[in-house]
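hiii, so i know i said id send this last week but things got crazy w the move. better late than never?? heres the sequnce for the chain we talked about at the cafe, plus the structure i predicted for it. fair warning i was half asleep when i ran it
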Amino acid sequence: MRLDTPFVRLPLRVDAERLAAEVARFAESDWRPHPQGHKGNDALPLVARLGNPLDDGVSGPMLPTPQLARAPYLRQILTGLGSVIGRTRLMRIVGNGEATLHADTNYYWMQRVRVHIPVKTYPEVRFLCGGVELNMKPSEVWIFDTWREHNVLNPNPGTRIHLVIDTVGSAAFWEWVAAGERPFADPPTPATRPDKLIPFDPSVDPPLHTERLNFPVVMSPWEVECLFADLSSDLAQTNSADLAAEIQDLQWRFLREWRNVWAAHGPHPSGWPVYQRLIEGLDAALTPLADKLLLPNNTDAVEAVRQMVIRSALNPDLADAPATTIPATPKAVTMSARPAPQAPDLFDRPVFVVAAPRSGSTLVFETLARSPDFWTVGGESHEIIEDDTNLHPARGGWESNRLTAADATPEVVRTLRAAFRTRLIDRDERPLPPNAGPVRMLEKTPKNALRIPFLAAAFPDARFVYLHRDPRENVSSIIDAWRSGRFVTYPDLPGWSGLPWSLLLIPGWRELVGKPLREIAAAQWRSAHERIMADLSSLPRDRWMGLSYTEFLADSQAACEAVCRFADVRWDQTLPGELPLSRHTLTPPEPDKWKKNEGELSQVLPGLETVATDVKAFTSPTAPPPSGHAKPPAGGQPRTDPSKEPLRSVFTTSLPGLFKELGISLLVSTYQAGKLVVVREQDGKLNTHFRGMQGPMGLAVSGGRLAVGTKNHVWEFHDQPDVARKLEPVGKHDACFLPRAVHTSGDIRVHEIGWAGDELWLVNTRFSCLCTLDRMYSFVPRWRPQFVSALAPEDRCHLNGMCITGDPPRPKYVTCLGATDTAGGWRANKRDGGLLIDVDTHEVIARGLSMPHSPRLYDGKLWVLESGFGGVGYLDAGTGKMVQVAKLPGFTRGLDFVGPFAFVGLSQVRETASFSGLPITELPVEERRCGVWVVDIRRGETVGFLRFEEGVQEIFAVHALTGVLHPDVLVDDDEWLANSFILPDDALKEVAFGPPEE
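okay and structure toks below
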């Protein structure tokens, strides 16, 4: 809302200490990313549309979220403002972070003032507005002019949190504003009344009044006139009187037509189609003027008109909005809602073809458009999407074509859908009738490779066809497209030199300035596929399908029929043996056409092999089935750590079925991220569940016991089935490991650990020995290599891996990185100085290994990972040489076997002192992977993978839990630890089980 001064401090105070304590009780999982995706910013919704904390919309009834129901003083602060409350949230900025410089031009904030109350702040934090700045102190209550450019800077290393409340304000509220302090008025004015405290009273829980109506179904002509008049003062201050006058002329013509229609229909539905045409006409007339005139707040004038009127003047979906009941006691929030009668959604399960540029998507699109059920815009949608300046890459500083769900605001989505609707045609090029019912839209543009989250948010029932093409053919075609000059997308891209930018604008394009064209083309191919796989993994498996361009060309009829079955549309065509050329064909197709660029391709294709393998595995319907079992079903979805972002993972569709068929789950340790990861199949998807620990390394499981080696401790957990049965969701968990003992070992750099009967053995890397534990000592040394002359905390040979076998079980084999006896001496020859040693005889049974890890005796073979080049293999008993079974795209460390499958941990190592000079570092870092790869050891083929995308770069241990499908590990859950007991059988007989506590 516009104010007459940048800031006003209201004569109100809150109990800062109580407020901060109440906010501190919220869990990390209550916070979510900033609605506009601002980096380093997140939010905790307290009042949201229909009380849904995941809904950032501003149109529709606003209700308390479940989080607000747990915060009695926050509720009393809101009621203490004496106003109807709109969207409200806690806003957090990371240390040494900022918000983003912007002005609020959305219709919603034209009529609402924004209240800021500091919760956690510091003297260095600065709030900027309209060229001035100040520090808001705890307990103070402020409002500011949101129409002016504003930002928040937090140079302190701690996080800053404010309570942010939107309200239209009651008469009493505006009396407080009139009496408030204006530090930047001319002249500055102090508050004219003493501050009033909003106290906490535990005996009361006053009703909270929240917005029901905030957007009009049809904006009245008088409101349109007021908004245009409000904008006129800004237009008068611009640097182009001619452009300003042209915009104003269009506005007033629109207003006169709007008033004319209002006189005939008012807000009645009979006038909605006419209003919609007027809106589309104004938008089209303004489009040539976009990005040419800035208002004083640095907002584009056309964008301001769009936000204030074009996207806000007609809202049929708000007709007869749901009736809501706000409970008197929000501690047990219940809401009853009467669904609003709405017109059927015009777009029924639209289908988007997503692909890297030059993948053959035009031919696929044009062929599929022959279906009698598909409607298209006749070609690609570049201009439809980027005509909205909110969706143009210039809006984001020309970072890329990337769009996410945060970009799919209600106003943007409404405009986008209207733009598509006006251009839809059927296969005979007939336009969509005005009264058309739901239609099936088919759409494609290669830029959508970076827009899947946005499209999925704008069209919640959308389907995606992932088209992929042989990288040789595809990258060659990208090179040809650049050279042709026919595919220029951004001819004047700021900061770019060389050929005009063509095709997809990828993240990190600035790093390609001055690079050869082959590297640019390879980067576009790689970026598109990596982003598509990551984004599709976040959708249910039935929302997308893979399609090979090679297979499409081989049998287009069968391919189209398969796509139409997936999309649930009809196919009534019999295709000719040879399809006509697509409209964007440069030269007719011919076998091995890519070979004309073979010399250039040979320099970039090796760097694309990993992604190509990922694409093949990702789009495969299933992996090879476990021996003796049916094929596992497809399915997949990434999971993020519920308590801290980012910890994203992506997996191939084969893995959930494979886990289910094998009857397993996985434990994975990542000391770098400080997490123990529980990986399990859940409802046809793969769930990654993160538990925080301090530098977890080795894992050992025996029966119901789990041991975890960490930085300074060794933890022992026991499975408590009774607790597992009670965990949410009830009846799902079949194991729950709770801590039973912890031993302080000190920082011995524990690596692999293992149970030998009831005795736990540890690889003590720092002291170059194997050891066990005793309550009297940090550790008890039990064995060390003969070439290590003394027990010293010097990591002389980097002992790391251990294989326990035999009857009775005992340590049998170990790996180390060098036969050296000086502090850190193994580093000098780490590339190929590794050893495999027999513990009983001290015999070195294999030399010259590249950073060996994870020795395992399985299926009669002694397996070991040659981590230095990503190798998986076994020792040939006859020759003593290593037999490589697979080479994987990462530093292999962590190994377990189930049936014919090896589960291998991969780390995305960096060029640190420990890893520099290794063969694996010759692979570009963007091609190295972190996660768990599944290898069929019969054929050496990768049948699936779980890949960590962010937050996790290094894996240490991988352990399969056989016969356990859905475990959990509770590290610090106070409630379960306080109320879960294990007693001897004799004592258990004496326990009296009374009624459950209320």
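btw The two ends are 49 Å apart (CA to CA). thought thatd interest u
miss u guys!!
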